[in-house]
Amino acid sequence: MTSLPLIFDAPRKSMPPRHLADLSETERRAAVIELGEKPFRADQLSRHYFSRLNNDPAAMTDLPAAVRSRLGDALLPTLLTEVRHVETDQGKTRKTLWKLHDGTLVESVLMRYRDRLTVCVSSQAGCGMACPFCATGQGGLNRNLSTAEIVEQVAAAARVAASGELRGGPVRLSNVVFMGMGEPLANYKRVAAALHRLIEPAPAGLGLSQRSITMSTVGLAPAIGKLADEGLNVTLAVSLHAPDDGLRDTLVPVNTRWKVKEVLEAADAYAARTGRRYSIEYAMIRNVNDQRWRADLLGELLSGRLAHVNLIPLNPTPGSPWDASPKPVEEAFVAGIAAHGVSVTVRDTRGREIDGACGQLAAKG
C-alpha cells in the first residue's frame, strides 16, 4: 500500500488565536467565565456574531464598553483580512482572496443564482492530495484551517449578501459548498465542528439547512464513513474524475490507497444512512478522461446506485497541459452515462475570467 503522509499530516504551522466560532455553546460560556464575566455574555456575543452577522465588538452597544473590549480581544480576533476581490457575471460572482493571521492566503467564492446564494469555502491552505490538474494541488499543503477560519468565510459571505453588495440587492446566504482549497475530510475534526456551527440554530450557529451544505472529497473512504456517523445530512460529493483505477491513480493519487470500488462503497453507505443521493464530480479533461468508453464504464458503475453525475468543464490553470474537453465530446459523454439510466448534468461554470479555479488567485498573491 502506497504511503501518503501528506494526506493527513499538515505541516506544523501556527494556528490562529481562539475565536468564538471555535467553541460550542458550553465552551463559550466557560470562556466568558474565565474572563471574569457572567455566562450570559457568551449568548450576547453569539447573538451578535451569528444572528446579526456583526464581528465588530465596538458596535456591540448592548455590552458595556470595558466588556466589549475585553471579550472582543479574547473571543473575536480578526481571522481573515481581505487582500482583494474580483467580480464577474455582472457582479453576481465574487471571488475573494483572504490573508490569514500568519500571512497564509486562501480563497472563497460567492455565487448568486436565480434561486440561491452559494459560497464555496476553503478548508485548508493549499492541499496535499496532489491532483495534477488542480492549481491548489500543484502548490502542496501549507496548513489546516481552524474551525473559526472556515466559519468566518461563510459569515463574511453572509455579511456581503445582507449588505446588498452583490448585484440584485440584499439576499440571505442559502448554500455552502466545501469545494474550495483543500481536502475537507483531511481536516476532519475542524471541518465537522464547522458544520455544526453552520447548522445550529441562531444564536448558537448560523442556522443553515443541512441539505443546503455540500461536502466534497477526493475519496477518503474511512472519513466518509466517519461523516456518516456524525448524524448529519449534508450532501456528499465525491471527486472521482475517472471510473478506472489505472487512470485515477494518476489523476487522484489518493486512489492508490482507496480504489474506486472502495470509495463508491463508502459513498453508498453514506447514502444508505442519510437517504440522500450523492454526487459524482467529474472534471472533463481533453483526451485524458473524456473517452466514450469511460462514459459507459462510469454509467455501468453507477447504475442502480443513489448517485448523480456532475460533469465539470475543466478550468485550465496557466501553464498547465490540461485543457477542457470540446463541447461535442462533452455531449457524447453525457449521452454515454445517461444511456445507463444514471442522472447526469453539466455544471454551470462560474469565474473563468477571474481565475475561478481553486488556488489560481492565491497563486498570484
Automatic annotation (TrEMBL):
<dbReference type="InterPro" id="IPR040072">
    <property type="entry name" value="Methyltransferase_A"/>
</dbReference>
<feature type="active site" description="S-methylcysteine intermediate">
    <location>
        <position position="358"/>
    </location>
</feature>
<feature type="active site" description="Proton acceptor">
    <location>
        <position position="107"/>
    </location>
</feature>
<feature type="binding site">
    <location>
        <position position="127"/>
    </location>
    <ligand>
        <name>[4Fe-4S] cluster</name>
    </ligand>
</feature>
<dbReference type="InterPro" id="IPR027492">
    <property type="entry name" value="RNA_MTrfase_RlmN"/>
</dbReference>
<dbReference type="InterPro" id="IPR004383">
    <property type="entry name" value="rRNA_lsu_MTrfase_RlmN/Cfr"/>
</dbReference>
<keyword id="KW-0479">Metal-binding</keyword>
<dbReference type="GO" id="GO:0032259">
    <property type="term" value="P:methylation"/>
</dbReference>
<protein>
    <recommendedName>
        <fullName>Probable dual-specificity RNA methyltransferase RlmN</fullName>
        <ecNumber>2.1.1.192</ecNumber>
    </recommendedName>
</protein>
<keyword id="KW-0004">4Fe-4S</keyword>
<dbReference type="InterPro" id="IPR007197">
    <property type="entry name" value="rSAM"/>
</dbReference>
<feature type="domain" description="Radical SAM core">
    <location>
        <begin position="113"/>
        <end position="353"/>
    </location>
</feature>
<feature type="binding site">
    <location>
        <begin position="239"/>
        <end position="241"/>
    </location>
    <ligand>
        <name>S-adenosyl-L-methionine</name>
    </ligand>
</feature>
<dbReference type="Pfam" id="PF21016">
    <property type="entry name" value="RlmN_N"/>
</dbReference>
<keyword id="KW-0963">Cytoplasm</keyword>
<feature type="binding site">
    <location>
        <position position="134"/>
    </location>
    <ligand>
        <name>[4Fe-4S] cluster</name>
    </ligand>
</feature>
<feature type="binding site">
    <location>
        <position position="315"/>
    </location>
    <ligand>
        <name>S-adenosyl-L-methionine</name>
    </ligand>
</feature>
<keyword id="KW-0808">Transferase</keyword>
<comment type="similarity">
    <text>Belongs to the radical SAM superfamily. RlmN family.</text>
</comment>
<feature type="binding site">
    <location>
        <position position="131"/>
    </location>
    <ligand>
        <name>[4Fe-4S] cluster</name>
    </ligand>
</feature>
<keyword id="KW-0698">rRNA processing</keyword>
<dbReference type="InterPro" id="IPR048641">
    <property type="entry name" value="RlmN_N"/>
</dbReference>
<comment type="function">
    <text>Specifically methylates position 2 of adenine 2503 in 23S rRNA and position 2 of adenine 37 in tRNAs.</text>
</comment>
<dbReference type="InterPro" id="IPR058240">
    <property type="entry name" value="rSAM_sf"/>
</dbReference>
<dbReference type="InterPro" id="IPR013785">
    <property type="entry name" value="Aldolase_TIM"/>
</dbReference>
<keyword id="KW-0949">S-adenosyl-L-methionine</keyword>
<dbReference type="Pfam" id="PF04055">
    <property type="entry name" value="Radical_SAM"/>
</dbReference>
<keyword id="KW-0411">Iron-sulfur</keyword>
<feature type="binding site">
    <location>
        <begin position="182"/>
        <end position="183"/>
    </location>
    <ligand>
        <name>S-adenosyl-L-methionine</name>
    </ligand>
</feature>
<feature type="binding site">
    <location>
        <position position="216"/>
    </location>
    <ligand>
        <name>S-adenosyl-L-methionine</name>
    </ligand>
</feature>
<keyword id="KW-1015">Disulfide bond</keyword>
<keyword id="KW-0489">Methyltransferase</keyword>
<dbReference type="GO" id="GO:0008168">
    <property type="term" value="F:methyltransferase activity"/>
</dbReference>
<keyword id="KW-0408">Iron</keyword>
<keyword id="KW-0819">tRNA processing</keyword>
